[in-house]
Amino acid sequence: xxxxxxxxxxxxxxxxxxxxxxxxxxxxxxxxxxxxxxxxxxxxxxxxxxxxxxxxxxxxxxxxxxxxxxxxxxxxxxxxxxxxxxxxxxxxxxxxxxxxxxxxxxxxxxxxxxxxxxxxxxxxxxxxxxxxxxxxxxxxxxxxxxxxxxxxxxxxxxxxxxxxxxxxxxxxxxxxxxxxxxxxxxxxxxxxxxxxxxxxxxxxxxxxxxxxxxxxxxxxxxxxxxxxxxxxxxxxxxxxxxxxxxxxxxxxxxxxxxxxxxxxxxxxxxxxxxxxxxxxxxxxxxxxxxxxxxxxxxxxxxxxxxxxxxxxxxxxxxxxxxxxxxxxxxxxxxxxxxxxxxxxxxxxxxxxxxxxxxxxxxxxxxxxxxxxxxxxxxxxxxxxxxxxxxxxxxxxxxxxxxxxxxxxxxxxxxxxxxxxxxxxxxxxxxxxxxxxxxxxxxxxxxxxxxxxxxxxxxxxxxxxxxxxxxxxxxxxxxxxxxxxxxxxxxxxxxxxxxxxxxxxxxxxxxxxxxxxxxxxxxxxxxxxxxxxxxxxxxxxxxxxxxxxxxxxxxxxxxxxxxxxxxxxxxxxxxxxxxxxxxxxxxxxxxxxxxxxxxxxxxxxxxxxxxxxxxxxxxxxxxxxxxxxxxxxxxxxxxxxxxxxxxxxxxxxxxxxxxxxxxxxxxxxxxxxxxxxxxxxxxxxxxxxxxxxxxxxxxxxxxxxxxxxxxxxxxxxxxxxxxxxxxxxxxxxxxxxxxxxxxxxxxxxxxxxxxxxxxxxxxxxxxxxxxxxxxxxxxxxxxxxxxxxxxxxxxxxxxxxxxxxxxxxxxxxxxxxxxxxxxxxxxxxxxxxxxxxxxxxxx
Length: 842
Hints:
Layout: H1 2-10, E1 14-18, H2 22-35, H3 48-51, E2 54-60, H4 71-80, E3 86-90, H5 97-108, E4 124-130, E5 137-141, E6 144-145, H6 147-158, H7 160-171, H8 176-186, E7 192-195, H9 199-209, H10 217-230, H11 236-239, H12 242-252, E8 255-258, H13 264-275, E9 281-284, E10 298-301, E11 305-307, E12 312-314, H14 317-324, E13 336-342, H15 348-356, H16 370-378, H17 384-389, H18 392-399, H19 401-417, H20 423-447, H21 450-453, E14 461-466, E15 470-482, E16 496-503, E17 507-508, H22 515-523, E18 526-532, E19 536-543, H23 553-569, H24 588-606, H25 615-643, H26 648-660, H27 672-678, H28 685-693, H29 702-713, H30 726-748, H31 755-760, H32 767-774, H33 779-783, H34 790-813, H35 817-830
Parallel strand pairs: 1-2, 2-3, 4-13, 7-9, 7-10, 8-9, 10-13
Antiparallel strand pairs: 4-5, 5-6, 11-12, 14-15, 14-19, 15-16, 15-17, 16-18
Helix pairs in contact: 10-13, 14-15, 16-27, 19-25, 20-24, 20-25, 27-28, 27-34, 28-30, 29-32, 29-34, 29-35, 34-35
């Protein structure tokens, strides 16, 4: 990047540096301004003449191109930039960098070199901390995975001693984060970044840690001076805001908070203090790891799961790499420390995937938007098809074609080579068996319900266990524990853990027949393994007497040998518990399913192939042929979609919508409404243009106009609806009615839009706040009107100011000077005090 800047300055050219994160842009601006004070600008004048002076464009954190919202803008930019421009792309998490470079070379007819290094200047050591345990478990040491340590960590989590310690911790009201930070402070492993996936949790943890003092008196004086200078430009009323007053005591003790709900001024103050090593323990959400050059000695994850807007899931390897990469300071630390707290059982595959898995590939997030379509229709030289054909998405489609054709030919040859005797009969037998398997799966959904299965999970009960990846065969129940887990899982069986004595060297789950279990028991190692209820696939009527003390290997092996002997006496088949007669499941739906199971079992028994000695071989051959046929069908369908231009159906549908709404003519010539919509880039251009042409804003004063437009820029989740005046309620109803009309037209034009979801995407939760703010209320007053974070309010108001500017431009386009003046007046009422305080970096 430095070479690109030096080359451009030498040749009297301009360099554009762009990032997807405002905080990173501000930080880099400060760095560039200090190096080139007379040549660095954070603003840019639009125009073709300015673009002719651009020699280089630097894209930092280019992996954000996979982001559905931000990525598509970068992809459009890369397609439309002239071939004369040179590029620098920066990222730490792109495994398919060569493919991306090939696209750039193909797109702009210039070489694109991949410069990569696997060497990390400061090696990392990764630890697991099972909640409630006494210590840390080193599981990944400079790239070497220590499986034995992981097993010990999971065993520690499920032990009775750990459970007692968790209960004692809860009684003391001291959470596990406090304990581990105390340990890290004792070992002098600060500065520490504690990543939490909740803004509220960040603040709660920081307040609990505030009892520790990380700073010296001299450092406290520097913190006071930096903080005083940071808030110097605020009014006395803004300085008295609760968030401003509450953060200083934490900062003086070396504790910081960084998340999107914080006032931007305070966030930047925290960043500056952390960069100067005056904050020793920082509680942050994952956005802190996105590009900001703020390394620490230790990184602590408070959970291995996060809520992604839909479900609670394991964090991905890419997320883990991005955050854990903040550990280890070059030139200061010999190694960095990463600690992952786990508050639930975790299988080894999940841990390996998080810690050692490759980052997700850079796949295109390109999709057609109305704004893109209208802007392309406005330019004569370029059409939407041109953009789609040159997109990275289309390039990735084309790049996979040769290998797909080769695979298809190989599959067809393999399919033709498989011959199955009596294929029709084998197919009928296979279909009956598939139906039976489906019914048995439905059966087990009932059987595994705690009210039915738990009473039978006594010590010594023989159960058959299979996980997502392995079949453990038969084992003996040792203990049953009810766990009140904190992972928000909704599955009722997840609250139970069965300590089961099993063979710890399982076979693959495909081998689920009885005969495979004997081999497993002979070659494996007897271990007590915690399993979930949903891993039980068989429960026997047999119970064994198991020793109370199973610490000795011989005792555990003796139980497995006893299971083998019981199986041998019973001809290899253990008698199952009958779900109706033994377990007393009387649910009417279950009885119906149970009856169907027996009927299909009878059909299988009477099928003429059932006792045929060739049956296993015939079924295996048929399954192989079916698998090949399905793969051929799937590959053929995929090839058809890849050969054609992607998203053509959506493009056609969007054009129909624009014609129906009179944004473009029948011949795709842009109309006045389309030109107006092109001015709006930060919100829904179709709906705003419709409201503009319907005269909705003509009837509203500036305060009501700003309040209504807040529905387009507020993005947070909120539950309580605000109390609105009649004027605001009427304006909101008009917005929602217009949105429903657009959704109905879209569906009529075969562009699938969920009407309710579309209407609900315009959130009125900030309307009363914006209305009060534009009428002169103080920031403290509007904060008291809502439970939203202060930072969220400021971010919404700043986005609203940008939208109002675009609406003023739109009004100018239609020649409505009165409406343009109204939008500008709303901006004047909006833009004041702490909401628009200047960045500390600028």
